[in-house]
Design goal:
This protein is α/β, with parallel strands linked by helices. It is built from 9 helices and 7 strands; from the N terminus they run E-H-E-H-E-H-E-H-E-H-E-H-H-E-H-H. The chain has a single domain, classed as TIM Barrel. The protein has a 5-stranded parallel beta sheet. Strands 6-7 form a two-stranded parallel ribbon. The protein binds zinc ion (ZN) (2 copies).
Length: 260
């Protein structure tokens, strides 16, 4: 691996270690690029509601400043990018986008942890055989990608469908095809693999292989050591190779236009 674009910081309340240690670990692995994409802040409608697994809006400034300083310090050794991992919650997304535009944001990755939104929706990893929910996942994530604001789709196989295989195939194929048309890579997620979660889902990656999807491996590091995780990477590469998938090393990042 020469780059990783999926890296967290302790601001999300479930990651540990200073940003600097993530950078040092990436250097040990010989990475050329390291992108931070901590769980985005969000603005919700319900007064008093806030998610436990993301930074607060008032932490974004420090996040950006810390990474700008590191970018400067490590210039010439590794390229540091400042991004965020965001869900697409149509009801609240524009407000978030307005806020993001106040900062120099190099990229966003889509991580759709909830359907609809957090107040009214269901968690993507909850096992279900309901095609309506899978259809919602497909529709909502494709609408997100079509905004042109995301640089890639993180753990696209997060949705845990346990129903009819033909139904799964149809919806996943549609996701892969549209992502291809939009030239957006799909991320093979090492965090799910490390923790032996339901993703990476082999069914998903077989379809992605048939559709010729562009695939990028993401560490999804929640601790410095995971930034460069040679064992998980080798395991992922071996699996992808059996499907004929050669992951890309670098992703063309799409910056978020800053407001004046
Ligand atoms: Zn996380
Ligand atoms: Zn993540």
């Amino acid at each position: 691996m020469l780059a990783n674009y999926h890296t967290h910081t302790p601001r999300c309340n479930h990651a540990v270690g200073k940003e600097r240690r993530y950078v040092e670990r990436a250097l040990e692995g010989g990475f050329k690029e390291l992108g931070f994409s901590d769980h985005t802040p969000y603005f919700f409608g319900e007064p008093g509601y806030y998610s436990s697994f993301r930074m607060h809006p008032d932490e974004l400034e420090d996040y950006v400043q810390t990474l700008l300083a590191l970018r400067e310090e490590y210039a010439g050794r590794i390229q540091i990018y400042i991004g965020l991992e965001a869900e697409y919650y149509p009801k609240y997304f524009l407000r978030l986008l307005e806020y993001m535009r106040l900062f120099p944001m190099d990229y966003l990755i889509l991580g759709q942890h909830m359907l609809y939104n957090e107040e009214e929706g269901v968690a993507s990893p909850r096992p279900t055989a309901d095609e309506k929910l899978l259809d919602q996942y497909r529709g909502q994530t494709l609408e997100a990608l079509e905004t042109g604001l995301f640089s890639y789709f993180a753990h696209p196989d997060l949705f845990h469908f346990i129903g009819d295989e033909k139904v799964y195939d149809r919806h996943v194929r549609a996701i892969c095809r549209r992502a291809n048309e939009l030239h957006l890579p799909l991320e093979y997620n090492l965090q799910g693999q490390r923790d032996r979660k339901h993703y990476p889902d082999p069914r998903f990656w077989r379809i992605a292989a048939e559709e010729g999807s562009e695939v990028v491996i993401g560490s999804d590091a929640h601790a410095p050591l995971m930034t460069w995780d040679p064992q998980s990477t080798a395991e992922a590469e071996t699996f992808l190779q059996t499907l004929g998938i050669a992951p890309v090393q670098f992703v063309r990042l799409r910056p978020i236009q800053k407001s004046k």
